[in-house]
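**Sequence, structure tokens**
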Amino acid sequence: MSKRVAVMDLGTNTFHLLIADGEIHNYREIVHYHEAVKLGEGGINKGYILPEAYQRGINTMQQFSDEIKASGATEARAVATSAIRSASNGADFIKEVEDKTGIKIEIINGEQEAAFIYQGVKISGCLSAQNSLIMDIGGGSVEFILGNASEIIWKQSFEIGAARLMDLFHRTDPIPPASIEALNQYLANHLSDLFEVVASQNVDTLIGSSGAFETFAEVIEVEKGHAFDLNTTKNYSFNEDELLTLTGKFAQSSHKERAANKSIIPVRVDMIVAASLITRFIMHKLNISNVSMCSNSLKEGVLAAMLG
């Protein structure tokens, strides 16, 4: 009997629950669930989880706890990233979750987060012998991992996630051109470590790990009249022009236009603007035209460690 395990990825915007069993290269998903907790809402750059968001987080963890018990999983691991890591009341949240559910949340740092993302992307088969730059745009932080199918060359986490950027620059909708300029300048100032590393390496492809990249792929395919199912689409290669056209369109769109698009999940309706701008910035700055989406991310990397 193969063991059944549960992974919880507690992000700034979304809490994920993945319950699976089997071998790591051939695992079976029993439960794959995500809840838009929006833990960083209103407090992300103040370093504090506001009461409403805090309560949504507690409620979701109680729900996850019930799901895990019902599934018969024998082992569970909950990892928390940027929002809980940088919140002054993060420790209170962790204690309350343990008191109410017995779930012990581990806070992982940006380096560990990047390493798990790499493992998740690796088991999906998205990497080749050529060097790729993996980018995972979270709400609180963005991880960059330079590597290939056999190794990580360099990895770093930057506290420039979509929720943080939205709070700093996207206060009027549509986002004004001056704010886009300020956001680009902010990224240029904060990502010098990345530029330095990429300048000395040959980078073939940009791989967007889950999140916003799933939305980009779905919107592009649905607009062409194609069916798109993330459960069966583990990776997707973008046409450069289509991706730049779409991200440009998102950057100029209004909340109403984005909300009307059925392919954009509610939690991403506003975040997609900052995510689009980061994506465009990286493509232009690093001169990368090959971009793909990989639906695996941190939780699959944690799963790999548990099933491995």
Remarks:
- DSSP finds twelve helices and eleven strands in the chain.
